[in-house]
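Let's study today's protein:

:::
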Amino acid sequence: MDSLESKIKSNYGEKLRVRVCGICITDEGLLMVHHTALGKGGSLWAPPGGGMEYGESAHEALKREFMEETHLDIDVERFLFVHEYLDPPLHGIELFFEVRITGGNLKKGTDPEMEANAQIITQVEFKSLPEIQQLPTAHLHYAIQKISNFESLLSRTGYLKNK
């Protein structure tokens, strides 16, 4: 695990990143991606998303990230909120958008910044609110900790910070 954590630190750590994240809610629940070696205890469930690349718009980046992580095509519906993620060595300014699936088939994707033998995405799935609430809080992305319903997540606005 030390090797995987050092690769994460090398690729993402100790630098400020701009990230995009998509809130995708259907009748099946909230679409979430599980990452190993991230978060408290080496487990993190978060909405799909990732870092923006130079010259890429936020919408383009989010569509690319969804395809990489979930194999789903999306439309970006609207901007929701900004979240400052700070969990050393990771620090990111995250732009959250509501998204809608337009095509594709849900399948676990990859993180192209990590080598094939060091992938951190272990699962992609829709989770109901009760399933999310049963997960340890420390294993949930800060933006979805303590949500009481999906509508409260979609009605968030402004600037949020986990620390």
